[in-house]
Amino acid sequence: MGTDRTRILIDAGLSRRETFLRLAKIGEDPEKLSAILITHEHSDHVGGLVRIAKKLNIPVFLTKLTAPAIDWDGFTPIVETFQAGASFTIGDVEISSFSIPHDAIDPVGYCLKANGVKAGIVTDLGYLPDSIGFHLRGTDFLLMESNHDLDMLKVGPYPWAVKHRVMSRRGHLSNDVVSTFIKETMDSSTATLMLGHLSEHNNHPAIVHLTASQALQSRGLATGLVVAEPGKQSEAFLF
Fold first, then answer.
1. How far apart are CA 128 and CA 174, in angstroms?
2. Strands 192-196 and 108-114: what pairing?
3. Ranges of each domain in the chain
4. Is residue 237 scored above 80 in pLDDT?
5. Which letter does DSSP use for residue 60 in this model?
6. Which CATH architecture has domain 1-85?
7. DSSP 85-154
């Protein structure tokens, strides 16, 4: 998310090269990033963090419990820690964090506010407790995971232990759970819903789009729906 004064990168799972290339494709200069926000320590969210932080020398914001879990490879970054659930400001962007149920040390989601716009970022969670619905009230833009199709997961290539983890209450959201959220909880003020973090083996963008579209139609919502496909550059949204 960015304003005229502040640019924030949320998570850094891609390599430095790939991250910078993707930023360039949407007209963003990595050197103008103000800070990096981290949701949790899993490699697909911090795999490129050390090299990016070294190159840019900008603050990395993460929870007090997550910080010691990062292998900085001898590098001493500018680290700003906070308690999960805390609110703080980076430049002219107001940020609130909230705990999410996932099998990481202290995973969080974020809501960011600037210029009268509220964006919610919530991925990597096994279910959607009422508290998360509360935090996401009034979001204009919402990025949420729609990780797997249950039927595809059950017959897919993962070992049973991994399937059980994904389906658990500390795993990932299925398309069906997201559909229920849209039908029962999602704020009608949400102008754009982006669904991401799709499994390459246990989901398909067309299934995600169909399931979510049907849920939106059942409520008569005009929310714009975007599905972020694995490995592809998604479109940019300006607020």
1. 11
2. unpaired
3. 1-85, 116-239
4. no
5. E
6. 4-Layer Sandwich (3.60)
7. T-EEEETTEEEEEEE--SSSSS-EEEEEEETTEEEEEE-S-S---HHHHHHTTT-SEEEEE--B-HHHHH
Distances (CA, A) of 49 to 16, 31, 35: 8, 15, 12
Tens digit of each residue's pLDDT (9 = 90 or more) over 41-87: 999 999 999 999 999 999 999 999 999 999 999 999 999 999 999 99
Amino acid code (one letter) for 78: I
3 pLDDT more than 90: no
Which tens digit of pLDDT belongs to each residue from 186-197?
999 999 999 999
For the chain, the residue count is 239
CA dist., res. 64 & res. 106, Å (int): 8
Q: Residue 144, exposed/middle/buried by CB under 10 A (0-12, 13-18, 19+)?
A: buried
Taking Cα atoms as reference points, which of 216, 190, 195, 197 lies closest to residue 136? 190
Contacting residues for 151 by C-beta, under 8 A, at least 6 apart = none
The dihedral sign for the CA sequence 10, 64, 167, 71: positive
